[in-house]
């Protein structure tokens, strides 16, 4: 029997008795084209791939700023919390848009 650990609360998820939820986070540099090189045919992911290949030796520092992928297992409780507030403390309440 495979045991998963919830990356939110650290609890073991008993996958026989409860649903396990997977969160995949993908963060990558937007690489917005400047005006004079606006070209719909450009493949930004390919550009990132090329960049990453060049950064191969340095993957842990600059590479992660360009492209970072992470996978989390969550229990049902943490899934609910995550969906409500995916950015967590990055978006505190006083930072909201209510002032306008
Ligand atoms: Zn949890």
Could you characterize the architecture of this molecule?
It contains three helices and four strands. The model has no long low-confidence stretch (mean pLDDT 79). The protein is of the alpha+beta class. The chain has one domain (4-95). The longest helix is centred in the middle third of the chain and has 11 residues, at 44-54. Zinc ion (ZN) binds next to α3.
In short:
The chain is of the alpha+beta class and 100 residues long. Helices cover 28% and strands 20% of the residues.
List keywords for this structure.
100 residues; alpha+beta; two-stranded antiparallel ribbon; two-stranded antiparallel sheet; 4 strands; binds zinc ion
Backbone structural class: alpha+beta
> Could you tell me the number of beta strands?
4
What would you call the shape?
elongated
Provide the number of structural domains.
Answer: 1
* H-E order: EEEHHEH
Helical proportion, percent range: 25-40%
Quaternary structure classification: single chain
Beta-strand residue percentage:
15-25%
| Main sheet strand line-up | 1-2
Low-confidence stretches are none
**Bound small molecules, which ones?**
zinc ion
**In DSSP terms, counting alpha (H) and pi (I) runs of 4 or more, how many helices?**
3
